[in-house]
Design goal:
Strand order of the largest sheet: 7-4-3-2-1-12-11-8
Oligomer: single chain
CATH superfamily of the largest domain: Glycosidases
Structural class: alpha+beta
CATH class of the largest domain: Alpha Beta
Number of helices: 11
Number of domains: 3
Bound molecules: beta-L-fucopyranose
Largest sheet: 8 strands, parallel
Distance between the termini: 64 Å
């Protein structure tokens, strides 16, 4: 009982910390005359997370061996048998790219635990790997620490294997799994949780659909987070709703141009929010007047999927693509969480390692030297009668917390920057001392050119880190910043950089499948020219059926008999989920009259990560006709739904 009371107290205290002890100065050691913090401020734990900026998430479970994105929970436990598992190779590759932490997926939705848990038999001790005596979470932790990386865990709340999923017994087992992970793997920087919760699964052989009440089932607020606070007080809790770090709302790794660290989680019904149960309109942008400091994380896999698929070996993101993601995540005050997917053998593919190394080189060559070093500044106002403590020279030191500040009544100051000679740059970096909150509304940068100030760039939501990437490099010697805030400003950093070229890597073009030029495609009641959008080779166009009764069928006549060993379904790419297919069936025929079943299953994680679903057949089929059936549509509740398809492809 004592124990419960105490952990409640710790939780309450942390909540207060998250809201910020505005004005009393205890959270960040205010010195004399410092401006009063504005709005919510980060906790010490969140500050550590902000400073990390980027880390990796490793997906490696029996699902890897099934070539799937979501395991159903029925894979034999001994399927998981990597022959050359090497956690060090993974950690080293992450380190080479400049990542500061590793999160291991200790358990994914398939329910298989990578550590010898006492809560279920479905765990690593059933694997032939190390004769069942191994502990993969431990190996990842040791490898992370060996390379100077912080460590974190993701333990999926949804468990498609556990027979008790849906009742209290499982909810308690889940909390026990967290206790085990929090107790035996050192200090964690994050406890990562996602919102995918409840649905069909194996569930110990029941093989059925189980729905849970996302708001109440796990006891997030009153039972789960208090365990985290008690056992891992230094870990930020990530989920789509926070409480410490929120999801950006997509799996592309990109934050919107304006993205505030402040946010008020609300449920879809206007009530309480919980993981997977949120009004998602403001996940990306945050809210200028949000009640809590809950900055965003941008997650995205290095390959199209979170798990390894040999079919995606040509689609590893290039260093330039990773750099663009970095600019749009870390450069917008969020964190960059990159998914790494070891192969069944237990190491990263050489293409992944090369991409990471190339990205790391590009980052250090770009940001290794601040081109503004040596500049002199002239500020329209310096706080406390030109007190040096608040002077603009603070902008060029490496501290994120020393800063230039103005008197309280000066909320639209100006700063002139005289660079040490003509300087060519295409990235501008700005940071605020976020211990004092997110104060700036906007910053406008101009350059002195032909005896006049010419507008160069502007930005909102500065916060922990803001990178403005110019469309092309400019050369200048004098710059001017105009800042706008509701209170005195607290700018801590000004940087100029020139993007380095990334040597390498043009990935070979992905397999585009068999020729579709002569295909004829039909569906009952569908307009044939609209239907062609499903096979026109243009990812941006899509076919959307009218609302109809599910299942809905679509028939393809390939016009000649050929061997096909897989097919692809690309969902619409316009950001709208309507009509995305979540369960499918594929049949083939030689004459268009007699049909044989070829494949049936789910398109996992399609809403959050709408990539091509590449389904490989267990054996190739020879066919002239294919019949594709949409059995279920994501987010559709009734028996009727519209169906959408950007591309349907067949592979040989
Ligand atoms: C999501 C999961 O459903 C995906 O499979 C993946 O693990 C991603 C990182 O989080 O919520």
């Amino acid at each position: 009982m004592m124990h419960m009371v105490q952990s409640k107290f710790i939780y309450l205290w942390t909540l207060i910390g998250a809201v910020g002890l505005q004005g009393c100065g205890q959270t960040h050691g205010l010195s004399e005359n410092e401006p009063v913090p504005y709005g919510p401020v980060p906790t010490a734990t969140q500050l550590n997370w902000h400073e990390m900026e980027m880390y990796c998430l490793i997906h490696f479970t029996p699902t890897t061996f099934q070539d799937k994105e979501w395991g159903y929970g029925d894979a034999p436990a001994d399927l998981f048998n990597p022959e050359h598992f090497d956690a060090d190779q993974v950690a080293e590759a992450a380190k080479s790219a400049g990542f500061k932490g590793l999160i291991t997926v200790a358990k994914h939705h398939d329910g298989y635990c990578l550590w010898p848990t006492k809560t279920t038999d479905y765990n690593i001790s059933q694997s032939p790997w190390q004769d069942g005596r191994g502990d993969m979470v431990k190996e990842f932790m040791e490898a992370a620490h060996h390379h100077g990386l912080q460590f974190g865990v993701y333990c999926s709340a949804w468990d498609r294997n556990h027979p008790e999923y849906g009742n209290e017994k499982y909810a308690e087992a889940y909390r026990e799994q967290l206790r085990e992970l929090y107790s035996n793997y050192g200090t964690l920087f994050t406890s990562w949780h996602d919102g995918a919760n409840g649905g069909d699964g194996y569930y110990g052989g029941a093989d059925e659909m189980r729905k849970i009440d996302r708001e109440t089932y796990y006891g997030w607020e009153d039972k789960v987070w208090p365990i985290t606070r008690e056992l891992q007080p230094g870990a930020v809790v990530f989920s789509d709703v926070g409480p410490d770090v929120r999801w950006i709302g997509n799996e592309k790794g990109i934050a919107p141009e304006t993205s505030w660290a402040t946010f008020t989680p609300v449920g879809p019904d206007g009530g309480k929010a919980a993981p997977g149960h949120i009004d998602n309109r403001f996940l990306g942008t945050g809210q200028r007047d949000g009640k809590f400091w809950i900055p965003a994380e941008c997650d995205v896999p290095l390959r199209p999927g979170w798990f390894y698929h040999a079919s995606q070996d040509q689609q590893v993101k290039t260093p330039d693509e990773l750099f663009a993601i970095y600019i749009q995540s870390v450069g917008r005050g969020a964190a960059f969480n990159l998914g790494l997917a070891p192969m069944p053998s237990g190491t990263l593919h050489p293409a992944d390692v090369a991409a990471l190394q190339g990205f790391g080189r590009k980052l250090s060559e770009t940001f290794g030297r601040n081109l503004a070093d040596g500049a002199s500044f002239e500020a329209s106002n310096i706080r406390s009668r030109n007190n040096r403590q608040f002077g603009p020279d603070n902008l060029l030191d490496t501290s994120r917390y020393t800063y230039w500040s103005t008197d309280d009544e000066v909320t639209a100051p100006e700063l002139t920057v005289d660079l040490d000679g003509e300087t060519t740059f295409d990235i501008i970096r700005l940071r605020e001392n976020i211990k004092l909150g997110q104060r700036l509304d906007s910053v406008h940068v101009a350059m002195w050119d032909n005896n006049a100030w010419v507008p160069l760039a502007s930005a909102t939501s500065i916060g922990a880190n803001r990178l403005i990437r110019l469309e092309q490099p400019v050369t200048a010697q004098r710059l001017r910043l105009r800042l706008f805030a509701p209170v005195a400003v607290a700018l801590s950093d000004f940087g100029l950089f020139k993007e380095a070229d990334a040597a390498v890597t043009t990935a070979a073009p992905a397999d585009s499948g068999v020729s579709r030029a002569n295909w004829r495609i039909t569906a009952s009641g569908a307009d044939s020219s609209a239907l062609r959008k499903a096979i026109d080779g243009r990812v941006e166009t899509f076919w959307l059926s009218g609302e109809g009764k599910l299942p809905q069928h679509l028939t393809i006549d390939m016009r000649e008999q050929q061997t096909v060993d897989g097919f692809g379904y690309l969902p619409r790419q316009d950001g709208n989920n309507a009509g995305m297919i979540s369960r499918y069936r594929l049949e083939s025929s030689i004459d268009g009259i007699t049909w044989q079943a070829v494949a049936e299953g789910e398109f996992s994680n399609i809403v959050a990560n709408p990539i091509e679903q590449h389904i490989r057949f267990t054996k190739p089929v020879s066919a002239r006709y294919l019949r594709f059936t949409a059995i279920a549509v994501a987010n559709a509740t009734g028996a009727r739904a519209a169906v959408s398809i950007a591309e349907l492809t067949a592979y040989d």
